[in-house]
């Protein structure tokens, strides 16, 4: 089983400079490889990562575009893993594209990386770095301080250095033994979870979980800072002779003033802070849910997000929802929790959780409603959570579904039919808190 521990770095300015150049190298090589791939493919060829890499190795110290102004190959200043890995990543990206296409999922072709727009990162192979407590020794630059030690014991598979706003991180992939991967549950409930904007999550047990307060304050500040930055952009447009709100012709580059650069950096830091608050919240929530439940039912989130939220709320919540779902998926594996994703057509809000009557007249603003058939009073979110819970138990309501599969539960995780029986675990597995898990920026790979 593979786990990744992402640790913040405390690099010196010289090391930051190297990181930036290594990221730039990885980006340029990726773009070269993708362009070459597309060119060969259009010409009827069948490009692959290995042949492209070979082709690249033949020119990388000779071709003028890879030489500096003195005719020196600048790639030699950067460790070779940084410019070898993009070929593997590109091959993986195409594999994923064709796999998604085959499964009928939304598929994205690999795209060119743009400076300042893409994720900055580069790879270091496992035999190229060593760890010693809170330091990591990287090729070319030596020891870099880390904010904490690697928490997992096992075979180290590789590392990726990346940047978020103005901070640098190293994500170390470790092959861990099963005993470290699997976690012990503290209880074995079965629950449905309704996710929303008003309350972040409503659990069928009756518990309502609010989104963290700092998030709201930070989002307000986000508006202000975004406005400040866009004013500076408008000023730059005006200075270049464009209308304030004009769409620039493709390829236009406006001069970037110091103030605009600073403003953009401040905004990026705030974005990172918001992401941290949100990640902290979802990590704690998802750990707790998986730790306490043997079966969990959630909705197909994206669709709901698109249907029920206004523009800004959607943009914000979608990120949080997507993260919540992927965290639930990997934590469910670690805790042995059965995760059920309800069909996108399952009307969890509209059904009466007591008698099964469907309230066709329910609108988005109705927070409470009364069942016309049995007279039960419902809280919208709790009722939805209870309906979701029923998908995991033998009392699931028979629902006519317009979905082609005819069922009420779908997705990658199969629905459970019949009651879920409690699973017992021996005490040999270790346990950790959500706090600890969050601090580790823990994320699992396949
Ligand atoms: Zn009813």
In short:
With 446 residues, the chain is α+β, with helices and mostly antiparallel strands. It has helices at 13-42, 49-59, 80-103, 178-181, 213-239, 258-292, 301-308, 311-335, 380-390, 434-439; strands at 2-10, 121-125, 130-132, 135-138, 142-146, 155-164, 167-175, 189-195, 201-203, 208-209, 293-298, 338-342, 368-370, 377-379, 409-410, 443-444. The longest helix has 35 residues, at 258-292.
Can you give a write-up of this model?
With 446 residues, the chain is of the alpha+beta class. It is 41% helix and 17% strand. It contains ten helices and 16 strands. The chain has helices at 13-42, 49-59, 80-103, 178-181, 213-239, 258-292, 301-308, 311-335, 380-390, 434-439; strands spanning 2-10, 121-125, 130-132, 135-138, 142-146, 155-164, 167-175, 189-195, 201-203, 208-209, 293-298, 338-342, 368-370, 377-379, 409-410, 443-444. The strands form three sheets. Strands 1, 2, 3, 4, 5, 6, 7 and 16 form an eight-stranded antiparallel beta sheet that branches. Helix 1 packs across helix 3 (80-103) and helix 2 (49-59) runs antiparallel to helix 3 (80-103). It is globular. The structure holds zinc ion (ZN). Residues 352, 354-355, 357, 371, 373-374, 376 line the site of zinc ion.
């Amino acid at each position: 089983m593979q786990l990744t521990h992402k640790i913040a770095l405390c690099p010196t300015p010289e090391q930051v400079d190297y990181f930036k150049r290594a990221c730039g190298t990885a980006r340029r090589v990726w773009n070269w490889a993708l362009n070459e791939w597309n060119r060969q493919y259009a010409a009827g060829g069948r490009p692959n990562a290995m042949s492209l890499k070979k082709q690249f190795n033949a020119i990388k110290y000779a071709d003028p575009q890879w030489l500096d102004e003195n005719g020196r190959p600048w790639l030699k200043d950067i460790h070779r893993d940084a410019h070898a890995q993009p070929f593997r990543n590109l091959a993986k990206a195409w594999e994923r594209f064709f796999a998604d296409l085959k499964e009928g999922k939304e598929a994205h072709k690999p795209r060119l990386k743009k400076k300042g727009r893409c994720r900055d990162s580069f790879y270091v192979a496992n035999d190229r770095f060593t760890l010693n407590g809170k330091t990591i020794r990287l090729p070319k630059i030596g020891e870099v301080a880390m904010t904490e030690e690697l928490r997992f014991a096992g075979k180290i598979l590789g590392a990726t250095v990346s940047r978020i706003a103005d901070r640098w991180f190293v994500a170390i992939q470790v092959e861990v033994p099963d005993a470290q991967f699997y976690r012990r549950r503290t209880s074995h409930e079965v629950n449905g979870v309704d996710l929303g904007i008003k309350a972040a999550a409503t659990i069928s047990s009756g518990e309502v979980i609010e989104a963290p307060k700092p998030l709201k304050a930070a989002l307000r500040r986000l508006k202000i800072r975004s406005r400040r930055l866009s004013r500076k952009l408008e000023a730059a447009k005006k200075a270049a002779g464009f209308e304030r709100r004009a769409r620039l012709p493709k390829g236009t580059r406006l001069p970037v003033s110091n103030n605009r650069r600073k403003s953009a950096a401040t905004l990026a830091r705030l974005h990172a802070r918001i992401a941290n608050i949100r990640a902290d919240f979802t990590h704690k929530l998802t750990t707790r849910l998986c730790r306490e439940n043997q079966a969990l039912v959630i909705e197909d989130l994206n669709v709901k997000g698109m249907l029920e939220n206004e523009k800004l709320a959607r943009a914000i919540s979608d990120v949080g929802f997507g993260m919540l779902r992927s965290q639930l998926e990997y934590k469910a594996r670690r805790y042995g929790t059965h995760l059920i994703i309800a069909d996108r057509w399952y009307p969890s809000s509209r059904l009466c959780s007591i008698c099964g009557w469907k309230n066709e007249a329910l609108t988005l603003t109705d927070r409470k409603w009364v069942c016309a058939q049995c007279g039960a009073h419902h809280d919208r979110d709790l009722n939805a959570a209870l309906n979701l819970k029923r998908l995991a138990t033998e009392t699931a309501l028979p629902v006519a579904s317009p979905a082609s599969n005819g069922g009420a539960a779908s997705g990658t995780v199969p629905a459970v039919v019949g009651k879920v029986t409690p699973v017992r675990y021996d005490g040999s597995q270790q346990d950790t808190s959500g706090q600890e898990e969050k601090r580790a920026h823990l994320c699992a790979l396949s």
